[in-house]
Amino acid sequence: MEILSVKNLNFTYPEAKEKSLSDVSFCVNSGDIVLLCGENGSGKTTLLKMLKKELSPFGKRTGEILFRGESIESAKSSDIGFVFQDVDSQIVCDKVWHELAFTLENTGTETMQMRRRVAEAAGYFGITQWIYKNTSELSGGQKQLLNLASVTVGVPKMILLDEPLSQLDPIACVDFINTVKRLNEDLGVTFIISEHRTGELVSVCNKIAVMKQGKLISYGNIREKLPEISNEAVFGNMPDCAKIWRDTGKKGECPLNVKVGKNWLSENFSFASSAPIKEFHNEYDNTLQCKNVHFRYSKHGEDIINGLSFSCKKGEVHCILGANGSGKTTLVKLISGVLKPYSGKINIGKGKRAALLVQNVKNMFVCESVEEDLRLYCQNLGLDFSEGEDRTYEALELLGVADLRHRHPFDLSGGELQKCAIAKLLVSKPDILLMDEPTKSLDCVAKDNIKDIIKDLSLNGVSIVAVTHDTEFAAEISDRCSLLFDGEITACDVPQRFFSDNSFYTTGASKISRDYTDFAVTCKQVSALCTEKNNEP
Asked: Has residue 142 been placed in a domain?
């Protein structure tokens, strides 16, 4: 049964020259899980918000949106749920139980029914053990699960998810996807999910919608449409097994998960050797050094950072991984000087400049346009007007966002804003670049551009410390990787050994290939080792 129909939808933001959505038409059946993907700025978030009347942006709209056969404007608020990318932006209450009840309070639900629904949701989502906790104490994964649960207590027919995985660690990511799958199978809830991080998500979706420059260029069964996708900004974020399938000649049916990918790999290829390990050799001194650092947020609270020691050499790219709530963001804030340890020492070298890319990049912008914001930053750095203009232009061009310089930062997509934020940091020409989730919200082409920029900065002596959940990015770009657990660095090694030794904090390429070869942790490394089998009798 058709639950959603979009016909000839066009939308233009006020004062915009180009349409954000152009002649978009598609229909969704009840029980579908639709993966909505496309390059940064292609219109994904705009489309999602137009499917939720309370969030529909202001502007000129033509076309038709029908929900269950009637205009979207007549749909009940609780019939369509929406979960945002930013895990904190949706939480409004101080206690978990109150957050679950908030939706029901707004719809005038009777008290006993409200208590029953909250109790039922807490049990279903595994929230009972932290039902009385403060929402501020939750990890990112718990917050996103709470956001989904809070929407679900209203018994929606359809839920829209806008990059729900972008701030989740690999384990929390899988847990969230499994919850989506359960809701779909147990309750028949329809999902439309906009996401760049599609590795584990693809296998639970039955349809895919691909957008480009405001147009829907492909829509249909995911197994049929995925192999046809030629847009690297989209396919580059697909599961590692799918990329290896493409890079080795598209033999057989495209595998969409690790289990199928392992079987496909063993049936079609043999491996004569292991991947050569690229050891870390850096003769420079440490640009950054942490010694026995301790930090807690309150005097009588637990230590978030507990005796941590860590170093990064000049020109080194060092990625830090770990679970949501393990202290990664706290660590880069300590290194940048935003926070101060109560014990231990952090040395970044006399006269060295450190710049921090924060997790919520909206907090980095205060002006009415991107260009104005970067100019103000140059003034605060003490640069004269001419040099400030040169640095601003150079940084915006480098990130490919010069055409966005007159736009208001909050009118940009998540990926566009992320690129503008990185451009702003580069204006300062830092000696140490600290990045909290640098690839968040980026399509594959933009991510490759960031990799190239990081490599160039490294060659010019800039030390880069990146906190990330993106294991593929870390495997490709790092000189060394570290795992943060219980406030300490519990493992540190070159990427090939680091990811080969891990079972969960590792890459899809490593999971697929580790039974057949050693130390291959990227798609390129696996593909390079594949020798095609002769399966003829």
From this structure: yes
With a pLDDT cut of 90, the percent of the chain lying above it is 80
Pairing of strands 530-532, 317-321: unpaired
Residue 58 CA to residue 291 CA, distance in Å, equals 52
Question: Three-state secondary structure along 231-296?
Answer: CHHHHCCCCHHHHHHHHCCCCCCCCCCHHHHHHHHHHHEEECCCCCCCCCCCCCCEEEEEEEEEEC
Between CA 58 and CA 194 the distance in angstroms is 21
164-198 core/surface letters (b: 16 or more CB in 10 A; e: else): bbbbbbbebbbbbbebbbebbeeeebbbbbbbbbb
Residue 387 to residues 249, 379, 401, 497: CA-CA distances in angstroms? 49, 10, 19, 44
Residue 529 has pLDDT above 90, yes or no: yes
Terminal Cα distance for the chain, rounded: 47
Burial class (CB in 10 A: 0-12, 13-18, 19+), 448: middle
Q: Is residue 349 part of a domain?
A: no
The residue assigned the tokens 């076309």 is: 63
* Residue 375, phi then psi, degrees to nearest 5: -65, -45
Last residue of one domain, picked from the residues 383, 404, 427: 427
DSSP 134: B
CATH number at residue 75: 3.40.50.300
What pLDDT does 349 receive?
79
Residue 41 banded pLDDT, cuts 50, 70, 90? confident
pLDDT at 536 over 70: no
Q: What angle do CA 264, 267, 272 make, to 5 degrees?
A: 110
Domain extent at residue 228:
2-238
Number of structural domains (the chain) is 2
Predicted confidence at residue 535, as pLDDT, reads 56
Q: H helices of 78-209, where?
A: 96-106, 111-124, 140-152, 170-187
Residue 342 counted as domain residue? no
Is 48 exposed, middle or buried (CB count within 10 Å of its CB: 0-12, 13-18, 19+)? buried
How many other CB atoms are found less than 10 A from the CB of residue 14? 9
CA 277 to chain centre: 28
Show the tokens assigned to 124.
């279903």
In a domain, residue 471? The reply is no
Kindly state the DSSP code that residue 56 receives in the 8-state scheme: P
